[in-house]
Specification:
Blueprint lengths: L3 E4 L5 H10 L3 E6 L9 H11 L4 E6 L4 H11 L3 E4 L5 H11 L3 E7 L8 H5 L4 E6 L29 E3 L8 H8 L3 E4 L4 E3 L2 E2 L1 H14 L3 H6 L3
Parallel strand pairs: 1-2, 1-8, 2-3, 3-4, 4-5, 5-6, 6-7, 7-8
Antiparallel strand pairs: 9-10
Pfam families: PRAI (PF00697)
Pathway: Amino-acid biosynthesis; L-tryptophan biosynthesis; L-tryptophan from chorismate: step 3/5
GO biological process, one term: L-tryptophan biosynthetic process
Length: 225
C-alpha cells in the first residue's frame, strides 16, 4: 500500500503548487489564529480551487464551533476535516453528521498513557493522526517541530488508517515509518525555512524521502499499513 504524504500549513499559491507537482497526496490548510500558518477564508477559497482534483484537501481546525466550520467548509470545500483540539468522540460524531465530511482526529502523544482515549475516538473518526504533545506553555497544539517517541506506537493494533506527525523532516521520515508502520506522514515545520514560511526544495526533499520508504524492503516485510 502506498504511503500517504501530507504537506500541511500551506498558505501561498507557489508553495501549494510545489507540493502538488511533487506528488503530495494531501495538502493541509490551517484555520487557527494562533498559528503562523493561519489562513483567511478568501485565501482558502483561492487555494482550494487551485488544489481541487489534484490532492485531498484537509482543513485543520482547533476546537472550532459549527459556525466557524461552516465558513471554512464553504470557502475551502475540503475533502476531510482535521480536528486538532480537545474534541471528544461525541463532538466528532456531531461534526461528521452536520457537515457530511470524514474527520481525522489528532491525538497528542508523549507517552503510552496518551493513547487511552484512542478506542473511543477511533470508533467515530475516519482516520487518526498521532502528533507530538505540545509543551504546556505552547500557544498552539501542533506545528512546533517536536518529535515524540515513535516506539509508543510500535505495537499498536489499530484497524483505522493512521498517520504520524511531529518533527518529521526528510532526514527522519523513513525511520518514523519503519518504527510506527504508519500508513501516512504529515509534515509542516519540517519543510519550512522560518515559522510559517514553506521552502520549496524542503517540500520536494521530504516527498522524495517519503516515497523512498515505499521501496524499503524491511518496511514491506514489517507489514506497514
Amino acid at each position: 500500500m502506498s504511503l500517504i504524504v501530507k504537506i500541511c500549513g500551506l498558505s501561498t499559491r507557489e508553495t501549494l503548487d510545489v507540493a502538488l507537482a511533487a506528488g503530495a497526496d494531501m495538502v493541509g490548510f490551517v484555520f487557527f489564529p494562533g498559528s503562523p500558518r493561519h489562513l483567511g477564508l478568501e485565501a482558502a477559497r483561492e487555494l482550494g480551487r487551485q488544489a481541487k482534483g489534484r490532492a485531498i484537501k484537509v482543513a485543520l481546525t482547533v476546537d472550532a464551533d459549527d459556525a466557524t466550520l461552516a465558513n471554512i467548509v464553504e470557502a475551502l470545500q475540503p475533502d476531510i476535516l482535521q480536528l486538532h483540539g480537545r474534541e471528544t468522540a461525541a463532538r466528532l460524531r456531531d461534526i461528521r453528521q452536520s457537515f457530511g465530511l470524514p474527520v481525522m482526529k489528532a491525538i497528542a502523544v508523549e507517552s503510552a498513557s496518551d493513547l487511552a482515549p484512542l478506542p473511543g475516538l477511533a470508533a467515530v473518526a475516519d482516520r487518526i493522526l498521532f502528533d507530538a504533545r505540545a509543551p504546556s506553555e505552547a500557544t498552539r497544539p501542533g506545528g512546533l517541530g517536536a518529535v515524540f517517541d515513535w516506539h509508543v506506537l510500535e505495537k499498536l493494533d489499530l484497524r483505522l488508517p493512521f498517520m504520524v506527525s511531529g518533527g518529521l523532516h526528510a532526514g527522519n521520515v523513513v525511520e518514523a515509518v519503519r518504527v510506527t508502520r504508519a500508513g501516512g506522514v504529515d509534515v509542516s515545520s519540517g519543510v519550512e525555512r522560518a515559522a510559517g514560511i514553506k521552502d520549496p526544495e524542503m517540500i520536494r526533499a521530504f516527498i522524495r524521502a517519503a516515497r523512498a520508504v515505499e521501496n524499503d524492503t524491511a518496511l514491506s516485510a514489517s507489514g506497514a499499513r
